[in-house]
Amino acid sequence: MKIDDPFGRTAQKQERNYASVRSTLQAAGVTTPAQVEQCLRSITRNALISTVVIGALAAAVALFYPQGLSVALVCAGVGWLWISATAVNGRRHVQRYRREMFKK
């Protein structure tokens, strides 16, 4: 029993998420290490593009509506945290898939 997850709910949720990612990768035909690497690069690229878009939107709010800047910055921060967490979890699941499929 873990102190931070006494009933194993977080671990079970992570396992369900991994099973979903694994089945999606298999359905997409990701069967080689090169394809897995491409998925990892794609996750990183998409996270960076989303971060740039959020930054551009916050800059546009600052330029055109300075009174709303504080709200825009809070929303941008929450969005960035969500994107970062999603990218980290996605990369972790794809890396686990790579380890299990290709024994790396």
Please describe what this structure looks like.
With 104 residues, the chain is mainly alpha-helical. 82% of the residues lie in helices and 0% in strands. The chain has 3 helices and no strands. It has helices at residues 9-27, 33-64, 69-102. Helix 1 (9-27) crosses helix 3 (69-102) and helix 2 runs antiparallel to helix 3 (69-102). The longest helix is centred in the C-terminal third of the chain and has 34 residues, at 69-102.
- Summarize the main sheet: none
**Which regions have little confidence, pLDDT < 50, spanning 5+ residues?**
none
- Amount of beta strand: under 5%
Mean of residue pLDDT?
A: 93
Number of strands: 0
User: Structural class of the helix and strand makeup?
Assistant: mainly alpha
Q: Could you say which overall geometry the principal axes of the C-alpha atoms support?
A: flat
The DSSP helix count reads: 3
**From the alpha-carbon coordinates, what is the Rg to the nearest angstrom?**
18 Å
Distance between the termini: 29 Å
